[in-house]
Every structure is written in C-alpha cells, then in structure tokens.
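Thread: quick sanity check before group meeting

JM: Hey all, I'm pulling together slides for Thursday and realized we never actually wrote out the predicted structure for the chain we discussed last week. Dropping the sequence here so it's in one place. If anyone has concerns about the input, flag it before I start.
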Amino acid sequence: AAETVQEARDLVSAGRKNFVINGSMMIYQRGAGSTSTTGYYGPDRQRYMINYGTYSITRSTGAPSEAGFAFSSKIDCTTAGTPTAGQHLTHRISPLEGYDSEKFAYGTSGAKTSTVSFWIKCSYADTFALAIVCHDNQRSCFRSFTINQANTWEYKTLTFPGDTSGNGADNDNTLGLTLDLFIGGGTNFRGSSAPEGQWNTRPNNQDSYLTKNSTSFGTSTSHTMNITGVQWEFGPNATDFEHRSYGEELALCKRYYQRWNGNDPDFNTYDSGGNRQGATSVARATLIAHGHVHDSDDANVSMMLDVEMRDNPTVDLPSGNNSIRLMVGPNIYDNATYVQENNCSRNILSIFVDNGGAMTANQPASLILRDANSYLALDAEI
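JM (edit): ok, ran it. Output follows.
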C-alpha cells in the first residue's frame, strides 16, 4: 500500500490508465452529520452545497456489492424545504486542485475527452444533471441522466468533451475542476435550454442544469440518494472501476483532512479512573502532540505529519470540550483547552494552546484526548 500521496500518484503514473477520484467511499474520517449548511460531510472529499432543508449525510453500507463496493455516500432529507429561485442542492464529488486538473489540457487544442461513471440509487425516479466545472475560468459542461426505477442501484456513464476554449485550470493547489451533481434547485437552475455536452460560461449553462428535473430533491422527507463507485477517466468509454487499496485512499485523503479521535483503538492509550489512575474502562487518554509549558496557562505542542497537506491547515479542536486536556509530567490539567495560536505548516502540526491551569513553565507537556467523544482535526480542503 502507498504510504504517501506521492507514492499513490506514482502508482497511477506507473501504469494505471484511469484517473480515479475517491469514488469507493472507503475513507470516513468525519463521521455522520445532520446539517442544513454547506460543507464536507459523510465520506472524505464529499462536499454538499445546501441552501434549503436539513439532511442526514452518512457513509452507508448500502452499496452494489456485485460491483465490489461496500459503502456509499448517502443523503437523507430529515426536514423538507422549498428552494427559492437562486437556491440549489449540489453534491460536489472529490474536487480536484489545479495540480490534478492541468492534465486535462483544457484551454488547448489537445483538451481531453473524459468519461464519468458511477452507481446511484434514489428514492424516486427523476432526471438530474452532472456538470464538470472549471473554476479558474468559470466554464462548465453538463449532461443529464435519468433514474429509471426508485430504490434500485443503477449504473450510469456520461462522456464530456474537452474544453478547447478559455485558459483551463491553473497549475497550483487551489480549486481546479469539480464534478457537481445537481439534484435540486430553484428557477435559476431550470427552464433554459443550453445544449448538453457543450462547454459554455458557467452562468449560461447553469440555467439549464435542472430543466429536465421534475422534483427537487429535499422537498420531501421521503427523499434519499446514495452514490458510489465514481470514476473519472480519460477517453470516450467507461472501463471497470479500478479499486485502490485502503492505504492509498487514506494517504490521498489526508492531503486534505487529518483527524485523531479519542475512540480510535490504534492510538497509544491508557485506562484511568478517579484521579487519572486506578480502575480500568473509566476513561481513556490518547497522546497526540508533545512540547513544553510556556507559562502557567499556555503550552506549545507539535508533531510531524505522515502526509503533506495541500496547504497550511486550520485546526479543529472544539473549544470548551471537557475531554481535551494537557498532561504535564504525571498531572492532567482539567481546565478547558483551546487553540490560542495556529502555527501549523503543510508538514507539521504546531499549536499554542491555552489551558487555564496552574502549570510550571519549561516542563514537558503533551496534548491528550480524554474520552471517546474528543477529537483533533486538521483541515486543508478546497
């Protein structure tokens, strides 16, 4: 298994003909969520843009096992909504940064034709649209597809021409190309008749994304949709899905998001009870990063990351969470720990934390997760 992002990319360039995004939905660092806001939810690299309704977004074990899949990304409407003219509900599937988008050669005479294939199941029959969007020049190309039978796994393939106009994607680590699955929206996304399979400016195309759609997803609590096995490859035909190893997928996902959970059995842990020692199965302390005490209530902790991230990450360490603490020598300081200064780079977790405890300067310190509900995460998503 590849241990780094570069090793995973080397395996692709060494002989794999397909350009495969994280379409098997294996990696699930964030866990389930119920939300009415836009963000990354469910399996890694899956971003939902939500303007109406509330949804439960999970990694489901419902999947077409005959095709070799164990998981799917599932969106389930829990509170129905009605989209206004400019609102939409979109599943953005594993967005690509510029470094990975440039190989499509958009904006040149050699722009490549590509094909997207996927397995999908919806609670009702209808027609939806999948768009390739180039964010650097704000151009898009879309195609519609139809769910023929409710609650049934169906295999879809959609072929898109290369875009010979515009400037293509920039060769950098910012947002390049995306696959946007439009499943609901208001009048701004329906009613026009821009031709499918042709590149145009994004505003000129998006008025037609949902023209063939009769029922916006999320207008009823009976609506559910699952998708898995998404493969994006060069050429006019879909080929069999290339299953990558778990290690490869995890390394590729860690470029954008890394998370440590207090309930992970693979971490260095010890059981504690009462005043941190004694009875077992009472509490757990997971050592994360190490450093030193700066003064009575502050400490610096850091650690090397095993995968370089896309950019300097933000730190998600919930403020006031009672299970995130500092350990100094044999003592655990139980005041709420929060990030006072983020000094992280793409390769190093480095944070200045405030604990509010009566610590002693210059003593060694460790950041720990005290129970199953605690976590620390680094986010460099695009």
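AS: nice. The CA atoms of residues 184 and 216 lie 4 Å apart. The mean pLDDT is 89.
JM: adding both to the slides.
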